[in-house]
Amino acid sequence: MIVMKFGGTSLGNAERIRQVAGLIERNSDSFVVCSAMSGITNTLVEIAGLWKSGKCEKADDLLDEIASHFEQTCYDLFRDTEALTNSTRVVIEIFDLIRNRISGDYNLHKENWLLAQGEIVTSKLIALYLNSADIPVTWLNALDFISTGIDGEPSVSDIRDRLNAILGENRHGRFLTQGYICLDHEGNISNLKRGGSDYTATLAGAALQAVSVEIWTDIDGVRNNDPRIVENTFPVRELSFDEAAELAYFGAKILHPSCVWPASSNNIPIHLRNTMEPDAPGTIIRSDIKRKGITAVAAKDGITVIRIRSDRMLNAYGFLNRIFAIFEKYRTPIDVITTSEVSVSVTIDNPCHIKEIESELGSLGSVKTETGQAIVCVVGDILEQHQDRAVRTLDSLRHFNVKMISFGGSRNNISVVVPREEMKDVLRSLNSYLFGNQSPKPDSWLISQA
User: How many degrees, rounded to 5, is the angle at CA 411 between CA 409 and CA 412?
Assistant: First the structure.
């Protein structure tokens, strides 16, 4: 069995859904994971915000727009009168239920329920179309088998047990479910955060011991740099699990940051493919990649740097542990860390508890915070027998205001922190220097572009 995940842009209209149906038809044994149709989750988030602030009329207007979009998709998609009637009835029933729910008082559990409906209605519509087109598929509710523990993380073994109970002995055929949505440890509807459909796919792949996980998007695989910023990028055809994890975590938009580990732990290849060009090679992610060179560059902004300086750090046991305990207390992950004799610098991308963290770190030393930063990550076999790669990488940054450098913690990663306003020029310079056999642009060009 293979797992096939389709993102929102792949399911954005009737034409795209027909194209996806053709891809699903190729595999008689498949487990299909669907995102919500393109733009739906964003609109549901907007509706939730209006509902929360008491602007119910505006929320109803937006909901009517979504409902009309789905009904029009039914008319565009179904040729058979009975199938059209069944599909529009399902859409009307779901949106009537949503209207009833948001007419009451707002709370977070109801919001999470609302956000789940994009995946629910999209997946039901696609299942109805596949069966009407003689592509038999069984619709499954992801809430019956995807759940998170008290730590907020799902368990592959738990998902496997639940799927075994649902599927029984007959594991052959096509099954279709939703990405993104799950239950929390208390049984309330929750989600795996934005982009979480990738995570659903690799969790299901690991639980089912799938041959491979195919993630279908509108891009021909991972590129060596951000094509929205940098010209002349090219697709990377092979990545190791470690490289893919680094790139996803540090900004590559094509993958959810958490989705690599279930596949990596179970040695299941991930194939990133383009729905609009289904015969294009895409990118394969697997364990047995033999690479010699720098693979790709990724970046993410919205980074905060926190520096803690204390003379008590000298020869002090447990100093780092006390720092990490504060971040753990507020469930705030650290991206990059560097240390010296008397100071520690860390970066975070979630500033929700920054005031509390600063206050508690103040008991350990002086604390300085810098917002508006960005992390740029260079990935490849940087330390494998070619030490000059690290030198070339750092040399290409000589024109920039580098605030932190993390090197050596991983054999395939150099991460630097720069001001957010310099991030685009850093990406361009790295692309030119590492992939274009050119020196970085002169200072005057860099300044004019900032």
Answer: 110
Amino acid at 253: K
Q: What is the number of structural domains in the chain?
A: 2
Q: Identify which of 311, 298, 295, 393 has the alpha carbon closest to the alpha carbon of residue 344.
A: 311
Mind listing the pLDDT tens digit for each residue in 165-194?
999 877 789 999 999 999 999 999 999 987
Buried b (16+ CB within 10 A) or exposed e, 331-356: ebeebbebeeeebbbbbbbeeebbee
Angle between helices 156-167 and 197-208 (to 10 degrees): 70
Nearest C-alpha neighbor of 6 from the set 214, 194, 220: 214
Q: What's the domain range around 340?
A: 295-449
Same-domain pairing of 325 and 225: no
172-197: b (≥16 Cβ within 10 Å) or e: eebbbbbbbbbbbeeeebbbbeebbb
Cβ pair 43, 13 in contact under 8 A: no
Query: pLDDT tens digits, residue range 105-116?
Result: 899 999 999 999
Residues 249, 321: one domain? no
- Does residue 329 sit in helix, strand or coil? helix
Mean local confidence (pLDDT), 250-278: 86
Q: Which of 189, 212, 177, 218 is CA-nearest to residue 8? A: 218
